[in-house]
Structure formats: structure tokens, C-alpha cells
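Protocol step 4 of 6: structure prediction from sequence.
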Amino acid sequence: MNSNQLIALAPILIIAGTAIAVMLGIAVRRSFILSFSIAAVGIIAGLAALAIVWRISPVQVTLLLRMDAYALFYMALLLSAGLAVLGLCYDYFKVREGENEELPLLLLTALLGAAVLVASSHFASFFIGLEILSISLFVLIGYPLNLVRPLEAATKYLVLSGVSSAFLLMGMALIYAQCGELYFSGIGRYIASRSDMNVTVLSGIILIVSGLGFKLSLIPFHLWTPDVYEGAPAPIAGFIATVSKGAVFALLLRYFISTDSYAYAPLLNVLSCIAGLSILGGNLLALLQNNVKRLLAYSSIAHMGYLLVAFIAGGRVPSGWVVESVSFYLLAYFITTIGAFGVVSVLSTPQTEADELSEYRGLFWRRPWLAAVFTLMLLSLAGIPLTAGFIGKFYIFTDAADGRLWGLLAAIIVGSGLGLYYYLRIIVVMSMDIKITEIKPAYDWVSTTLLAVLTIALIWFGVYPNLLVDVIQSIS
């Protein structure tokens, strides 16, 4: 390994080192503030290191990791989201019973796995990164040990994640058996060298997509999603919806482009069915919910379906367009989803989660600032103009039209209409008569600051997206 390769690994090494520093800090002195402070400083240092690595990229670090502009952009997105969730967790857990110093450690290890995922160029790093991320999420979901719902949610996630890992390993084994390669580019060369469709390779890719379908909660692999979102602490649910899914989707896109898996037309037909079912099914099931966290869970299923449409279009349009569309949509989705779960987190108390729709009645009159933030986040998820979500949805529409995916384009239109209904339903409830009892009288300055930053970013990228688009085009 030369000096450039070592420097390129700096962001990953910093996150790993920060996790060790948090462990040592806990061993020396249990301090809630100290653990969170070390974690926050480490994540910020990791973000600063990305700027240094950007100057020397692309760098191939052995066969396992490729630190190029694509990986660095997604690392920056994931670390920024992790920093936001860390802030929400600080206010959420500081008033709760138990020893919560280990929580930042678990967030750091989850971010470490996500960072390895988006830089992976080999099946070994692919699987290692995914397992580091998944194992950390088990514990994060069930962290409140004295509550039943988080433990139930963690158990469900553990079992189904194990099933998805089995699918992944079997798919990797089939591809290796046929190609003799674990390196993405090597697999791509094998596929490009054959004029016919190899059934073994196709079966392996289908198994890999099925395994990642669990992680992305695409229909029909979605059954764990509403229960896990409902049972997990609100900030952790936001982390699963963004960092976990974003890292997996970025890896899936890199894998398909690097291996030329778009050459298998039957696979794209299967993915088209999954995308259509996820869009329509996710939105239809969200209509039936009176629990805000379950509603956001089904909404996330629909949004993964929207993203999959742009992904499928990669078989018919230049890959650079797909990377641009997916990257912008994911960033907008990160902002809105973390903001939405952030509002739920702020309104929650040590006794109960603010997840029932009835608890939001009259929120505009009791907590106008939080109601306004939640409204903007919901409108962005619905794709209303002047928000980042609108620009992201426009990208998806454009890719579907350019790829002539008319059936999926119709599903997007219908799904967007259904989504607008249940998002507006929450807004209407917040504007109703004042409810007598307060959900939570205290204000959390860290969470409030984060929500303000997210709201500004939401509007800024919706009104003036040019700067962000230029950055994304540089990685395409």
C-alpha cells in the first residue's frame, strides 16, 4: 500500500479510530456528554478528511475499495446524516433511563459499515460492510432494554436480516462459481465477453438483488419495515430509513454499472415489477395508517420504488444521468426523512413515542415551529414545488420518460397522488382544534438547530439546486 492509498483510507480510519476512542472514554469515565462529543468530533474530522481525499481521487485501495468521487460524495452524505442523527439522539436519550454512552459507539460502527459499502468494488468488502452496518442496527433498534416494542423490532430485524444475508451469500457463490471473480470489474469483463445470457450468473444477480431488497424494504421484501420503524426509537428509525438504505442503494448502483448487469433484460423486467409494486403498495398501505412512524415506513417503501425507476432506466439511458438522478433524489430524501423523524423525536417523551396521529392534533397552535417544519418535510416528500423533493421527483419523471418506462411512469403519477393525500392528512390534523394536553413542554436546542438547518437546506435546494447539481455531475 502506497501513501496515496493510505491517505485515501483516512475517512474510514478516522471513523474506526473514533469508535475506539469512544470505547476507551467509556472505560475511563462514563459520561453521556463526553461520548457524544467524541463521536461528533470524529464525524466532523471524517468529513474534513473527505475534502483532502477528493484532491487525489480516484484511488484504488487494493481490490476491495475504490475511493473515487462517487464514493466520496456518498460518504459525505452518510456522515452528514449520521451527524444529524447523533444530534437528535443526544436530545432524545439524555432524559431517558439507563446507560446511554454506548449509543454513539454503535452509530459510529454503523457509519463505518456504510462507508465501506459505498466504496466497495469487491464482494468481500461488500459483505463485510453490509454486516458491520446490520449488526450495529440490531443493537440500535433494541437499545431501550426496558421496553417491549424495541426488543420485538430488533428481533424481527435480526431474523429477516439473517435471511437476506443468506440470499446474498448464495448469489455471490453462484457468480463466483461461474465467473471465477469476486472483483466487480472482473465480473463485468466476464459478462461483456459473452454474447448469450448465462443462467447461473443471472440467478446469482437475482439472489443478490433479493437480499438487498430486504435491506431496501422493497415489496415483496418489506414486511419487517413498519414494525421495526414503529418499535425503534424515533432517531434510529430515521437512521435506518436514510443511512442504511442510502448506502445499500449506492452500492447496488455501483455494482450494476461496474458489472454491466444491465445487459440482462429479464432482470430489468423483474425489477420493474418490484418497483411498480413498491410504489403502489407502499402508498396504498400508507393510506390505512393512523400511526405516523408506520405511515413514514410505508412512505419510505414507495420512495425506494421511485428510486428503483431511475435505477432501471440505467439500462436505456447513459449511466451518468442515472447517477445524477439517484444522487439528488437520495439527498432530498435524506433531508426530508431525517427532518420528519426529527420532529417525532422532539415531540416524544420518556414515557411514550409521539407516533399516534391523534397526538399531532392542534400542533400548529401549540408548537407552530415544529408544525411548520413537519409540514415542509411532508410537502417535500409529496414532491411539491419549491422543495428539494420536487426537484428529485422531476429527475425521476425525466429518467422514466427518457427510458420509455411508460408503465412505471403511470405508477409514479398514481403513487404521487396517493402520497399527497396522506401527507396532507397529517397537515390537516395539525391545524385542527387545540388539544388540551401537551406532548412535551421542553425544547431541545440541538434538535431545534438541526431541524432549522435541514429546513433551510430543503428550501435552498428546491429553489436553487444548481450548485448541488454541479457537484453531483462531477461524480457521474
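Step 5 (inspection) to follow. The mean pLDDT is 87.
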